[in-house]
């Protein structure tokens, strides 16, 4: 088995919903952006907002392939 590190942004409870309302996007869009499942300008903007304005933290999680 191979173990890799994958980035993820963790935000405090309830902040994802606030981000949805203020950024005008769906919960799925927020979730995918914070889990680095999408790569776009919008996803980059969501990640920056999460870290700068919503108390988000960038962490690396171990994933076994």
Strand proportion, as a percent range, falls in 15-25%
- The proportion of residues forming helix, as a percent range, comes to 40-55%
Count of helices?
Answer: 3
Mean pLDDT: 96
Gyration radius from CA atoms, angstroms: 12 Å
Walk me through the structure.
There is one protein chain. It is built from three helices and two strands, in the order E-H-H-H-E. It has 65 residues and is α+β, with helices and mostly antiparallel strands. A two-stranded antiparallel sheet has the order 1-2. Helix 2 crosses helix 3.
Please name the defining characteristics of this protein.
alpha+beta
Sum this structure up briefly.
With 65 residues, the chain is of the alpha+beta class. It is built from three helices and two strands; from the N terminus they run βαααβ.
What's the topology here?
Elements: E1 3-10, H1 15-23, H2 27-34, H3 41-53, E2 57-64
Antiparallel strand pairs: 1-2
Helix pairs in contact: 1-2, 2-3
């Amino acid at each position: 088995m191979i173990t890799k590190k994958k980035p993820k942004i963790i935000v405090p409870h309830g902040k994802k919903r606030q981000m949805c309302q203020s950024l005008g996007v769906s919960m799925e869009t927020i979730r995918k952006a914070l889990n680095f499942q999408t790569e776009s300008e919008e996803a980059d903007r969501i990640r920056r907002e999460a870290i700068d304005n919503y108390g988000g933290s960038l962490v690396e999680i171990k994933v076994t392939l």
